[in-house]
Every structure is written in structure tokens, then in C-alpha cells.
Write a structure and sequence with these properties.
Two copies of one chain form a homodimer. Chain A has ten helices and 13 strands. By secondary structure, the first copy, chain A, is α/β, with parallel strands linked by helices.
């Protein structure tokens, strides 16, 4: 038997046939349309990907235990609908009902960060832990929670937006996409790091950050890390401050949940120990009741590029 | 059958005999000792209160379904031990095992804020809701979480410290008792409100706050509210700013949990709608996905002075 995992992103819909122990045997993708309508629902494109996966893996729907879909935005996993999504503009799309017309297997949909958390818990670095928080440091800051071995979604699947904790109430705090100011996401996302890097470059025209940005052709989430590793002090300050922002939100979550482990994913997680070591130290020292409470491990996520497909597939397990 | 609820506080240990539907038939208390030792454990004083409750309610231990104990600090409810407590200085006290020698009924211990959340859920304003966050605005800011109808404690009962979310990362942020700076508790506790009130009074010697403080004999959590209601602009600014601090942390929790309701307890909750109306508005407007997500109700807790005894009793239900 196989699982089918569908990873809906802003640019493409990826799909894969996955064995029950998490091996991808075939994967493919198609680009997302500019604008889906009631007449041409996103479910049509998801159907195309599922058909392509069945064909490419040389299996039929009878070989499929279930289909899971990971989708950015607010998802009602109980009803199987996309409540809304900003990135690809969608409102109240009954994806599961629409796909059920074509595929007579269990079909599940959930928020992409929730899927990523579940995927790491079932197939990746979160295996064997009962309580795991997954945090993705990418365009935004996404959070997913495994509590007592189960995916936690909040009431009516409308919680788990840890990226939208306000960690700076001041008037001068950076605006967040959610409408508030000073959310964790506005400090700890890759987008925020790029902004912080650019500001620091303006302040120090001799910084090595210029060299690394030129080599890559742009200022990215890597620029400050690369220059800091090469000994640039301005870049080191950017990195240290950025890491303190990441740690601030993580300690908040540790104080509320006390998970076994926090897994960091997203582009910034490629910095590995350079990122996780100082965060581990900050959590050990600054969490509530540090002296008495059980240790929380900080690790990077392990599923990387396939996290989307595997996380979605894990929904159907 | 009765429940016995024990409410351990900094000044006294209260106890009550409670019917299964939450009526207190008898209550009493004794003062807490300055310093408990291995030889004279806090369990000895708890035992005295239980004996006094049995006698006062004219019942025997055979009439008791179970005993619940609410205790400030870090409690390991599974092991039945106080891991540590700052207020009354305690470390690794096996309270349940110690009391089991005397009372052959189920005995439970939990953190006081957790008990308060459970008490409101079972007997108070949280009845009928599946997901409730209880927040107490008192000396500190305590939080308790009912998720999917059950008390959530975090892994190893070491979570639910929502008061220790950092909401201000700046160097100038007020210090928190936990060692961090800028925790929600350092802005939204009654202690913090008193500090904010005193600073505002310094800045406006003609403020009505002086009159109300004089009448009460001190600056309290009520001073700014009373003066604001009487038309004092400086006091109104204190109140508005304080409420924005309370709302900041609550919106963070709403974005993570999306509870049915948030119940506010503690001294400041006596301000009722004057407090909850602007908070409800702030949450409705500023939470993540405000337009699409289900409403979260803000109410004041209902158990008031008996919350401690009833919450502890609810542990034994």
C-alpha cells in the first residue's frame, strides 16, 4: 500500500507516492494557476497531480491507503475545506468533497506547517518524541504542535499560529502580515533576517556581507551567516541579534508547552549547529524554572525538501 | 459523597468540604509556617486542615471521594510532588505520598493556576466550553489551559507558564521574577499595574489617583480604574495602556489555541466589563485571521474567593 502526499505551494503543487514507512517512490509537480475560480477549483489541479502520481508510480487508486494534502492558510481539517489562504487567494473551497468525486479513498487536508510537524514526528527528526514543536523559519514563521503524540490544531483548527505572538509591543516594531505589529514572524522569519541584514549593510559599507551578497547575486538569509563565519563583526552582530529573536519566541513556547524537542525547519535551518547551539543555550538559561524543569532539545528538522510531500502523506496514515 | 479541596497560599492553607456539584459545606484555614523542613513538611499542615475540614463538616474519610490540593509553583502531578515553589520555599516534597499515610482515598496535587482553570471549567464560568484559557491577573500572571475538555499541563507538568511569554525584548523592559525581561507578567500583573500607576502619579501631581489612593490607604490595582471612571485623563491613559498589555498576551494565546473562551480571574477581574469589553474588541480586531476564525469570548471568572478550594476539589472529581 501507498500514501499520496500533496504539497500545495505558492508556485507549484507537488505530489508523491509514499510507502507506509516514508519512502517516496515517485514525485512530480505542476505549476499553480494565477487565479482559481468556482469553475476551475484548485481541486482540479490537485486531481491532475494525483493522476500523474498514480501513473508515474505505476499504481492504481486501489493501491492507495489514503491521500493527504498540505495547504498554506487556514484549513478546516474536520470539514475538509480551505477556509482561506492569502498566498494563493482562496476562500471556502471544499477540497476533500471535490476530490472524493474522483478518488474513493480517505482524503485529508491540513495546514502545511501542521503537516510538516506531523511528517517530522512520523518520519523524521521528531520520531520517538511525544511532544514536539516544529518551527519553520522561512518567508514567514510557521509553527506546528504535536502534543501527547497527536497533532494539535486548536479549536476548530484555528490555532497554532505561534509566528503571530507579539514579542515587541512598541510603536516602532516592524509591521506583520497579519495586521499586528511586532509579531515573532516579523523578527525571526528569513524575510526579517534579510531586512535586518540590509539595514546592517547600510551601516557598514566595508562589511564582508557585500562580497557574499554579490557572489549569490542577492542579499539572502545566508548572507549574514556566511560573513559572520568569515569573521565579519557587523555580520556577527546581525546573526547574534537574529538568533536572540528566534530564541525569544521559542522560550515563550517552551514555557507554555515544555515539549521534548523543538525542530527547526525552513531555509535558515541549513545553518544547523551554528543556529541551534546558541538557541539551546538561551533556552537552557532563560526558560521558566530552568533549574528544575526537564530539558528541551533543539534540533533541525530532517525531511528538508520532501517535508511537504511526506508531511501530507503522514496525514493519511 | 464529598470532595476535599485544599488551597495552599503564601499566607494560609485553606480547606473545604465540597459536594460533587460544587457547593462548599464547610471551610477553614490555618496560617502557613515561615519555613517548612524535612522534619516538619507542609504535608503536616495540610493534614491538620483536612482533619479540621472532616470535623467541621461532620463527616469521616469514608464520606470523601477524593482530596485535591492546589499549590503555587512547579508541581509534578503524576508523581504527586512539589518540584519547587518560590513563594513558600519548597523543593521536592512528596506531598501525595506523605498524606497517603493518613488518608486512604485518591489524593491529587496540581499547580494553583491549573486548579483554578479546572475549577472554572467544572463548576464556574467555563462550564460548557471545551477549550478554555484561564488567566489570573494578580501578584503575577498565571495561566491554565483546558484543551478538548481536559486539563493541559505540558510535558512532565512543566508548561502552562503563559505569564512568562516575553512581549517586550528591549533592554529597558521591566525585569520579571523568572529572570527574563519583558515577560507578560511584568506588564499585566496587578503588581505591574501598581508600578505603572505610581509612575503616572509622579508625572501628574494633580491626578485624581492621589485622592483614591489616599482613601484606600495605598496605591492598589484599583487606583487607576477608580480615577479613570471619575474622569481623570492621566488615569485613563494608565488603564488603556494596561489593558493593551493584557490584550497583547491574550491575543498571543488566542493565535496559538483559539479557545472557546478566556476567563479572567484575580484582583483586576473585579473591574468586569470595564476590563473585558476593550479586551474583547482588541481580540476581535487584532487576532490572526480575525475575519474568518471562530469568535473567542472574554469573560471574568466566577468562583472568586472560593476558586482555590473549588479548583482543588475539581482535581478529585
Amino acid at each position: 500500500m501507498y500514501l499520496i502526499g500533496i504539497d500545495v505551494g505558492g508556485m507549484s503543487i507537488k505530489g508523491g507516492a509514499v510507502t507506509l514507512d516514508g519512502q517516496i517512490v515517485f514525485k512530480t509537480s505542476i505549476p499553480t494557476t494565477e487565479k482559481y475560480t468556482a469553475e476551475y477549483s484548485i481541486s482540479e489541479d490537485i486531481r491532475k497531480v494525483i493522476d500523474a502520481v498514480l501513473e508515474g508510480a505505476n499504481i492504481t487508486i486501489k493501491d492507495v491507503k489514503g491521500i493527504g494534502i498540505g495547504q498554506p492558510g487556514s484549513i478546516d481539517s474536520k470539514k475538509g475545506t480551505i477556509r482561506y489562504s492569502n498566498n494563493i487567494v482562496l476562500e471556502n473551497v471544499p477540497v476533500v468533497a471535490e476530490l472524493k468525486r474522483y478518488f474513493d479513498v480517505p482524503i485529508f487536508i491540513n495546514n502545511d506547517a501542521n503537516c510538516a510537524a506531523l511528517g517530522e514526528h512520523v518520519f523524521g527528526a521528531g520520531k520517538g518524541y511525544n511532544d514536539v514543536i516544529f518551527v519553520t523559519l522561512g518567508t514567514g514563521v510557521g509553527t506546528g504542535f504535536i502534543l501527547d503524540g497527536k497533532l494539535f490544531e486548536g479549536r476548530d483548527c484555528a490555532g497554532t499560529e505561534g509566528g503571530h505572538m507579539q514579542i515587541d509591543m512598541s510603536e516602532s516594531a516592524p509591521a506583520c502580515s497579519c495586521g499586528r505589529k511586532g509579531c515573532w514572524e516579523a523578527f525571526a522569519s528569513a524575510t526579517a533576517l534579510i531586512r535586518q541584514t540590509k539595514v546592517a549593510m547600510e551601516s557598514d559599507k566595508s562589511s564582508l556581507m557585500y562580497k557574499f551578497a554579490e557572489e549569490e547575486g542577492k542579499v539572502s538569509g545566508k548572507t549574514a551567516f556566511l560573513a559572520a563565519k568569515a569573521g565579519d563583526k557587523t555580520a556577527q552582530k546581525v546573526v547574534d541579534t537574529y538568533i536572540s529573536y528566534v530564541a525569544s519566541g521559542l522560550i515563550n513556547l517552551v514555557n507554555i508547552f515544555c515539549p521534548d524537542a523543538i525542530l527547526i525547519g525552513g531555509g535558515i535551518s541549513y545553518e544547523k549547529e551554528y543556529l541551534t547551539n546558541p538557541i539551546q543555550k538561551a533556552i537552557n538559561e532563560n526558560r521558566f524554572g530552568a533549574k528544575f524543569n526537564p530539558k528541551v532539545e533543539i534540533k533541525t528538522a530532517s525531511l528538508k525538501n520532501d517535508a511537504g510531500i511526506l508531511g501530507a502523506a503522514a496525514l493519511a496514515l
